[in-house]
Every structure is written in structure tokens, then in C-alpha cells.
Specification:
Layout (H helix, E strand, L loop, with lengths): L1 E2 L21 E2 L9 E5 L11 H4 L18 E2 L15 E2 L9 E3 L2 E8 L2 E8 L5 E8 L15 E3 L2 E3 L6 E6 L5 E6 L19 E3 L2 E4 L8 E4 L6 E5 L10 E5 L2 E7 L3 E6 L5 E6 L12 E3 L2 E6 L2 E5 L13 E3 L10 E3 L2 E6 L2 E6 L6 E4 L10 E6 L4 E6 L3
Parallel strand pairs: 1-3, 4-30
Antiparallel strand pairs: 2-5, 3-31, 6-7, 7-8, 8-9, 10-11, 11-12, 12-13, 14-15, 15-16, 16-17, 18-19, 19-20, 20-21, 22-23, 23-24, 24-25, 26-27, 27-28, 28-29, 30-31
Length: 392
Amino acid sequence: MTHALPCCSKRPRGSLAGRTTRRKVFETAVATGVGAFMLSFTNCRRQEASFERAAGVADRGSWPQWRGPASDGRVSRLPARLSSLRVRWRAPLAGEGPAGITAADGRVAVADHGEGRDIYRLVDLVSGRECWRCERDNHLDLDYGSAPRAAPLLAGDSLFVLGAGGDLPCLRLADGEPRWRRNLLTDFGKAELPTWGYCSSPLLVDGKLVVNPGAVGASLVALTPSDGSLSWAAEGAAANYASLIGGRFGETLQVIGYDQKGLCGWACDSGRLLWRVETGLGKGYVVPTPVSWENHLIVAHERGTELYAFEHGGSIVAKPLASTRQLAPSLGTPTVAGRWLLGHDRRGVVAVSLEDRLASCWREPRNERRKGMAHWVAQDDGERALLFCQSG
């Protein structure tokens, strides 16, 4: 349904959506979701993410990787009303599928798990017909199940997938046959499996495939997409859970994300550690993905949200420009919608102002229908926002 927004002096521009968990069917809305609602926006300005060209995966009409082509949770168009959509097909899965689905060129990639095997499928978007499947052994016994957590990455004629145990195969898009295989836990030095498995989705940036083994001397690695050979290995700490982003910050192309000790930036060309901000977040548990906004960086976690600036040369300014505790998500990534940042935490849906030092604009009253994890997707022109809710 479409909802009018509470009055606020600054009006935003976007709409948001995301991935869901523990779903046994998926539909051609090109996002798994057990529930969703719409927000409409007006009087908004268009703004392109600064790192869209760096990703190099696909255009705005597709969803080829975690959080879309620019890793920003935005799409070119959303439906005016959810009631105008109809289910065109349904397809069963073997079990739980917590990884986000991805889509490009009329095909949908989805990962699930059943009977000790990870299952990766490519499905025709129009008909729902399964084009192929690839099954990989995975007998892990993890909390929240052993299915892949990372969203598949569709790029060119390849599909890159990552299992919870670190299995990283590159599959041919034509038939699902492996081109090459690496393992984050064993191939790059001494590494320890994260408590809930590897969760950070593979990232394609500057022609390199970047993943985070969390190994000694190889916290991050960049691989050649065609053959899986090592381009560089970066210093850092053990792997965290949040996905990485790539982009130009402070006029320097870099990969930004978390290791177990803090928030970091690594040079895309060499893997050199450019900067680090110690987070002091418990045992280093961070799930929400960092967000780019007008050459600034937004990070959100269970203690709040911060806005950072960068110096010429790519170093981050250690003291945030603004911070707030009004948005403190433990799981879901917030999304930029015009001059607002929309998010969801344990207290419900919230909007904070990007023009007014992250001041709280409004918060939806607690709604039991929107409990648990939730993700936003924003429309580019700022007309609408879409929220997917785990609770339905």
C-alpha cells in the first residue's frame, strides 16, 4: 500500500528494498520478501551514487549484486502500488535461502541449501524455468542454518557465489559448470571461520573480484575474475559480516568495509590499507553495509549511525561530521532517499536528515507487522520507497 509521509521541512527522494531470510519460494518481483509496504515522496532531487561506475557490473535496470548495480539499494522504477503486482510464477527451494537473490539479462540467481549441499540456481525471469543448478557439498552446522548468506554476483558470462564455509566457485552462466574455485578458509593463509559463517557478498570493483577471507596477511584479497588468480592480499584483522563497497572517496578509488577491529579503507589498485577507524563494537559484529552519499560515508550499526568526510588523498576524517543514536540497526542497511536516510531498527522505521546532521525527521510508531530484519529499496527519481520485512 502507499502511505503519505509525516510532515518534515526536508523532503527526500528515494525508495528502498532488500533481501529476506528463510523463504521457501521466490517470485518475479526480483527481490525475495515476505512482506512490503510503500512510501511516496515528492519535491526530491536526483542524485547518482559516486561509485556507480566503479562497480562495472550492469545498468540500473538490473540487480546483479547485493544492493543493486551501484551497491546503494536503488532502482530506476518501483510500482505505484503493490496491489498492482501479480505473481507470475513460483518455484520451490530445497530449504532456507537467506542470501539475497540477484537478476540481470532476464535471469535470476538464487542460493539455498538442502541435505548437506549448497544449491545455486539460475532461473528464467519470464517463465520461472530453472536453467541449471550447481550443487556443492556443505556439511557445516551453524546457527541460523548452513545455507549461503552472500548474494550471488552476476557479471559478464560468470556467476560468482560464496558459501558460508568459504567455498568460492566461479560458475559459467551458460551451464553452471565451475570455471575455477577458491576457498576463503584455506587458500590465503591462516583464517578462522566466522561464528555465523562468511556473509559478505563478493564485490566487483576496478576489474577485480574482492572478498574478505580474514586470514593473517590476507584480510581482503582481490582476484582476477577470469581465472581466480590472486591480484593482491591486504593487511587487516579477521573477517566481519558486513558486505564491502567500492568507490572513489577523497579522489581515491578504494574498497571500504569492516574487519573485526574496525572500519577500513583499502586502495583498489594495491590493497594497501589507507585508513582505519576503531569501532569498539563488542566482538566486532557488524552487519549493515556502509553507504556512500555525495563523497561521504554513512555507517550504521547497533550503537547508532555516523556520517564521515574524507581528506584529499583518500584518508577518512576520523571524527564524524555527525552522529545519531536515533537509527541503530543491528542487521538492516539504511538507504539514501534524497536528503533523508531511511532505516529500520528494533524500534521500527525511522528517517534522519542528511542535511541537518542526522537529526531525526520522523519515526513510525512501533508496528508488530514490521518486526525483525527489514531492508529498503529507493527509486532513483525520489518518488517512492519500498520496505521488505522479514516478519511479513
